[in-house]
Design a protein that fits this description.
By secondary structure, the chain is of the alpha+beta class.
Length: 146
């Protein structure tokens, strides 16, 4: 039996306390890392207390890239938690994002990896253009016996 959709019956936004929101381990770690240093159990309790003042909305904050989240838990104007539906249909906060947050080391590493891959693709494309009529381009070979 499929779980009821937690977003059914509301059009754009609702008080977060009206919806059951679960916390992924990553979202708790990011809360500790980005918002306030504390033990993880305390962070989980504090996130649950934030539900009293937060709003859940289907509208993505303008400062966030579109990653396909089902909804967003907003805490003020500068904090957003993207919400995804898990296999049971429950809303789960995936991470904690802050407006104008500098990229993390892992974000920088992913960007560098994408750029390296793009450069490698361009090099491969240039080499492919050197192929003539399906043959591979080879530099002239000197005949040392001549």
């Amino acid at each position: 039996m499929r779980a009821p959709d937690p977003l059914a019956g509301w059009s754009s936004s609702a008080p977060a306390q009206c919806l059951p929101v679960n916390w992924s381990p990553h979202s708790i770690e990011q809360y500790v890392s980005r918002i306030r240093e504390m033990p993880l159990d305390d962070a989980r309790r504090e996130l649950s207390r934030l539900l009293a003042t937060a709003v859940v909305t289907r509208e993505r904050p303008e400062w966030l890239p579109d990653r396909g989240a089902h909804a967003f838990m907003r805490v003020g104007d500068d904090i957003a938690l993207p919400l995804w539906k898990n296999e049971r249909g429950e809303l789960v906060a995936a991470t904690v994002l802050i407006r104008n947050m500098p990229p993390s080391e892992s974000d920088r590493e992913r960007t560098s990896a994408r750029r390296r891959t793009a450069r490698a693709g361009k090099r491969a494309s240039r080499l492919a253009q050197k192929h003539r009529g399906g043959r591979r381009y080879l530099a002239p070979v000197l005949d040392h016996n001549a």
